[in-house]
Amino acid sequence: MEKHVQMVGILNLVYRAFMLLVGFFLLFLAAAFEKVFDLIVRYGDVRVEEIPMELLDFVPIILVLIGILIAIISTLGIIGAIGVLKRKEWGRILVLVISFFNLLRFPLGTMLGVYSIWILFSSETVKLFNPVPVVPPGA
């Protein structure tokens, strides 16, 4: 079970680091939205007349909100994965909570979420994270 816990920590760390990059990309895209939109209009098959301009004002705001949300959850996931690798109970709980959110991110997030929940809810893993203190004889 020790190797599975190690694998859960590493996989969550890698997945959340990648998602953190996605969050930063969305923030960059929101900052450069006007230029990106101009490129799409110039080289794509998009007619500006068909797009309501009021809607375009909200797109950068939505991108920023989604990017910040992804960055926050990813940062918490990285912290939780480090806690799992160090066998901390708070890390196990944090990765379990984030794993439930991962179930919604089909297909990779779902697979990682199911695997993490399966391993971290295991009774052997719970014992691994909460060792019984050894009381010396005669104490």
Low-confidence stretches: none
List SSEs in N-to-C order: HHHHHH
- Strand % is under 5%
- Count, helices: 6
User: How much helical structure, as a percent, in the residues?
Assistant: over 70%
Number of strands: 0
Structural class assignment:
mainly alpha
Assembly type of the shown chains?
Answer: single chain
- How many domains would you count in the coordinates? 1
Rg result: 21 Å
Overall average residue pLDDT: 88
- How far do the termini sit from each other? 32 Å
Mass-distribution shape: elongated
| Biggest pleated-sheet summary | none
Please provide a written account of the structure.
This protein has six helices and no strands. With 139 residues, it is mainly α. It has one domain (2-129). The longest helix has 33 residues, at 53-85. The mean pLDDT is 88.
